Amino acid sequence: MIHSLFLVNASGDIFLEKHWKSVVSRSVCDYFFEAQERATEPENVPPVISTPHHYLISVLRHRIYFVAVIQSEVPPLFVIEFLHRVVDTFQDYFGVCTEAAIKDNVVVVYELLEEMLDNGFPLATESNILKELIKPPTILRTMVNTITGSTNVGEQLPTGQLSVVPWRRTGVKYTNNEAYFDVVEEIDAIIDKSGSTITAEIQGVIDACVKLTGMPDLTLSFMNPRLLDDVSFHPCVRFKRWEAERILSFIPPDGNFRLLSYHVSSQNLVAIPVYVKHNITFREGSSQGRFDLTLGPKQTMGKAVEAVLVSSQLPRGVLNANLNPSQGTYTFDPVTKLLTWDVGKINPQKLPSLKGTMSLQAGASKPDENPTINIQLKIQQMAISGLKVNRLDMYGEKYKPFKGIKYMTKAGKSVSSYLFEFLFI
Amino acid sequence: MSASSAFNDEKGGSSSVGEPEYGHDPASGGIFSSDYKRHDDLKEMLDSNKDALKLEAMKRIVAMIARGKNASDLFPAVVKNVACKNIEVKKLVYVYLVRYAEEQQDLALLSISTFQRGLKDPNQLIRASALRVLSSIRVTIIVPIMMLAIKEAASDMSPYVRKTAAHAIPKLYSLDPEQKDQLIEVIEKLLADKTTLVAGSVVMAFEEVCPERIDLIHKNYRKLCNLLIDVEEWGQVVIINMLTRYARTQFLNPNINESLLEEGGGGDKTFYCSDEDEDEDEEKEKQAEVSALAKRKPYVMDPDHRLLLRNTKPLLQSRNAAVVMAVAQLYFHLAPKAEVGVIAKALVRLLRSHSEVQFVVLQNVATMTIKRRGMFEPYLKSFYIRSTDPTQIKILKLEVLTNLANETNISTILREFQTYIKSMDKDFVAATIQAIGRCATNIGEVRDTCLNGLVQLLSNRDELVVAESVVVIKKLLQMQPEKHSDIIKHMAKLTDNIQVPMARASILWLIGEYCEHVPKIAPDVLRKMAKSFTNEEDIVKLQIINLAAKLYLTNSKQTKLLTQYVLNLAKYDQNYDIRDRARFIRQLIVPTEKSGALSKYAKKLFLALKPAPVLESPFKDRDHFQLGSLSHLLNAKAGGYQELPDWPESAPDPSVRNVEVKESVPEWTKCSSREKRKEKKVEKPFYSDSEGESGPTESADSEPDTGSGSESVSVSVESGSPSDSEESEESSESDEDEEEEEKEKKKKKKEIKQMQASESEQSSEDDRKRDRKIKEQKSNSESESDEDSESESSQSESSDTESEVEVKKKKKVSEPKPPSKPLKKEKKEMSLLDLDDFEPTPSPQVTPVNTFLSNSLVTDLEGLSLSDSVLSPATIAPSSALKNYELLHRITGEGLSVEYCFSRQAFSPDANMVAVQMHFTNNATSDTKNLHIEDVKLQSGMRVKEFAEIELLPAGEATTAVMGVDFCDSTQAANFQLCTHTRKFFVSIQPPVGELMRPVFLTENEFKKEQSQLMGMNEISENLTLDAKCRNEHAIVQRVTTAANLSRVPCGSDKECRFAGKTVTSGSLVLATVATKDEGAAQLTVNCEKMVIGTMLVKDLLLALTQ
């Protein structure tokens, strides 16, 4: 399985190495650096690289490459999924997963890695178990440790590892018992030049923050569970119960976790919350181009569209853009040719627009690439698919918890992209 | 790394402790001084008495290791601290030890004794961690110690230690492969382990040490399948991959007769030229085959094969991409074609994950789409490319889109492709053009459209685009050159502008090859090329020579001199390939005296008809590697890759997977120890509580035992058709068989039942036989009904390990006597419950034991009760039938009628629920499908545990199911909808108060004590006159126990009957006393903490006793 792990930063330095079996020389990473050089973009480094004696499987997160060294056959996804789990754990522990954070907490990182893999095979990857073994560093604890000389390593033995519910640590106690659920939906759409939708889909997740004493057994039911087309669960969810009753029944892990991610299938029903009017033209022979963009809200059920961010990759020939936004600010990076416009909130009475000219390289011919427009946005208090939580019940404990459910819609990571111009047909 | 960054790191590493006095210490400031000196300082700290200093030192050392600095010279100083009290120091020392032990073998031995001590520690976690570190020390000398430790740990009581032992096996194996045989023994032992904790790790060890020993899996196959859902996710991946290989060697190819089952119908036709013929044949055969199918002996899937498919399917919903991929590949390699489709949705879901995950998934999807295109067609749009995708993802998506293209969707795909051509990512544009070329070759209809589009691209401003188009057009033209001489002319013109060597070479080749179509232009092109020959790239030069040769052969008049000139230039070229070529061609085409016979055939050599290139997916034929594997991704065999074997011609003996019940004997006996039971409770699989009606009494642990036990039962029953349990799920044909069989069975019902009973009893162990002897003695008085219920309970025990079908089947078998059956069950259960009371925390695991114990105890009790005639009728045989209530009338239910009764059995998935046994009868003429419950409306606090969906209730058939309702000790009705595949019915279940309790066994003294605590408000008394028929004690007991689920409390006085019970949800005691007086007068007293329950119970009991 996993032999060694190297952490490589953006400038190509190995700043951490950990070996689970015999030591593998760090020179094995040279093959990785080669591939890195060949790739034009950081994310284009192939995740799996074959070298004469080893295989390198890497993931890129937060501008750090996590390179795992493999010696024999193992499902690549197994390694990739594990590496992502490592990053998630770091993020969970240190808040951010940056080179600086890892270097500052190198001992904790090492202790974590030691617990997560045994002989290259995952041992404890549940954050609740790990937190029982190794307490996450907080400012307060660091200070206390400094003064009293106590340690980060949990004193008690990790009994959670033995339990039926390995994801929940035992003996949880809170004075305020609360359970919060965030229903976050993302619209992922491709819209063509004329404004018609090519694909649109809604993906959602329910992230939970559960701080409840003891061993609560929760059930969460939906008003309209049939909306959910494809779901994947946290291991705590009882699958049979979902199959039979469409109810989420689970003993939650302690703290933050992703309960469920789902996909809403209704392809034609997806309401795109904004529309874009655009006019981007280049005239043949002149070194000027016109840029005109207007945004407007559409089907938002009365909720405000917030945190709108428009970005567009302009053609390589564009030297500069001289634009005038009706609201918000815009930036244009002349090197990457990326135009970003931070719009903010859309006011339906006064639609935001961005107008102006682009200057082209003198003498260059009219660029024929398509500028694409990506839009990010947020709508609070609404799940665009219409998913509604019916009720949340708790069994197994006597107290009455405080429950909260929040809905939010945003544009997906691979955002609505408006593609222009067709070649033929 | 520079010194300054080292300094920062150092700071980072130590800042969390930052001993102030050492902050100013010259030694710690000596980071800039030589390594030697700094290490001196660390040594000093390690030797000190203060834990804080040691910790600080260890932290700095670990930081050094993390940066890859050598810290091995500190070994002696560090190893001394291996027995340090401070846990963190100890852990860091372990980290250090494992890292450097290999280099400092002798010194490492110093630490071994510490771990050996640890191995004996009473705490399982310490034992485990000692074994873990010990086995990680790669020192050959300690191999025997490790071997011993592993062997010992493999039989440790704690599953966690056994898991660690499984982890240690591959470590030892890599250290000393000689130990293989001994290790296999340990693996074999651990494979038999029944805990989910161990399963994943031991299979991992199996895969690393002895993947070829597939025979070790046989006995554990079913257990692994059943445990799978509860194993941790990483273990799941390993187990699924192993089981895929196993299944390939043990089962028959489910797609042997598959061509008919091809999903998707007509749209599914393949478009690869190579496949086309085959496909047409298939099409023709289809008609014939459809009719033949009915007659042909259908392929029968091994039930174990089905078990694997069924148990892995839910894992498609896992959050772990590796698990989803593992299940997907299992389905791809093992499932019948019609079922493979289920994986598509899950794989498409993975495309929303991190880009590395997408990369791997798309590679696998690309391979799958070649074989099973129909599967992914509905998800075509999910593979559309987004501008934000990394290039490697874009290219893979393009590959998938190309594979998915067919006549129906090609126009949308091409439209997508057009937008891609406008992308700014040039590598991607090039790949798109190639994809268009492939679509054009594969789909004849769009060939011309594509060609036109590509020709338009030739006027694109971007040279790369043009060049790529030229290359693709060249390939397309080769298919039908006659029609397209104008395109060739157009391309000839391009030679003036286009600079990309590959494109130039392609154009020249085209002109040379088809010079007869462009007789005027060709020599002119050669002229131009001859002029620029010296400046061309090598591949272009080679093509110029080619062109010259071909023209010389066809049109020597015009081109003789030009050819000579080109050949002369080539003769003095720097590149020897070109010089060689020139020499070779000159000999071949220019006839001289020396030239041999070959020159006669020069024309044939050069202008032979060349086959058009087949544009193939690079993913073709990759599926001979197991999908999801590293080897598949690299398209090359990786070290340690286990070949996916071909399906066997005929299935090996399936009986090898049968497990003897004997194996379980030690488990049973172990269970009696209290500690063991505790541990077992811990191992309770999480999901199984929601499984089946009698679910959680069945632990995954005991599943294989009971499963196999009942296996023998079912075989004995179904000896006529050993496979019908499988078939009934799919073919109605066998269903009919079954029915017929059943009619026969009905006649022989009793015999069979007896047989079953004896059968199942035979399969149990010796100590049970003793019970049976007592029982048999007893059964003389109790008649055969006792035996019936015996078999009944053994059936229900095993039911959830069996396939649902088998459960149904059994129900059918037992169905003819529905009214009496629950009663008898109840009789058993009641005594069971008495027993439960002796053991206040019955863990699900031990329930089977309970049943056993209870059997013996019941008989013991019965034996006792023979002398004490008062007790036996009350606790053991309430003689009247349970009352049936109507849930759904035949008429309102459109033929479906449902009755329910309170079976008074403990509802095992949830002790706080009342078991409601529902009896479904389908009086309609058509089948009812998908019977399930929906839209449960309850008062707050109430809960319902639905019965598992009944997939099919054939016309005229009946079945039963058990659901649980937690009424919260109130008589509020539970309202819900009963749904069939067509209709929904609003129904409600209202419990009589007597059903809200369960019997409790109390002694007379306990009863009095409890009663004295429930006086005043909690006591309700009523005077009554007993019904004329109900004057004797026996009748009173019978009526009370019928009206309420209470148990009789032994009583010295014959004037009083006492009953005790507990409410189901809150467990409040319910005590009832009937004191008889003269002439039928009596006093009824109920003591209950819950006054409402008490009042209602009094009313009910009054009614029961007076009427």
UniProtKB/TrEMBL annotation, chain A:
Species in which this protein is naturally found? Gouania willdenowi
Regarding the membrane, this protein is recorded as: Peripheral membrane protein
| Primary location | membrane
User: MHD domain: from which residue to which, for each copy?
Assistant: 176-417
Q: Which domain of life is it from?
A: Eukaryota
**Cross-referenced CDD domains:** AP3_Mu_N
Q: Write the gene name.
A: ap3m2
Alphabetical keyword list: Cytoplasmic vesicle, Golgi apparatus, Membrane, Protein transport, Transport
Q: Where in the cell is it found?
A: Cytoplasmic vesicle membrane; Golgi apparatus
Q: Could you identify this protein by its name?
A: AP-3 complex subunit mu-2
The cross-references to Pfam families, in alphabetical order and at most eight, read:
Adap_comp_sub, Clat_adaptor_s
> Is Hydrolase found in the keyword set?
no
Which family does the entry's similarity section mention? Belongs to the adaptor complexes medium subunit family.
Q: Name one GO cellular component term.
A: cytoplasmic vesicle membrane
Gene Ontology BP annotations: intracellular protein transport; vesicle-mediated transport
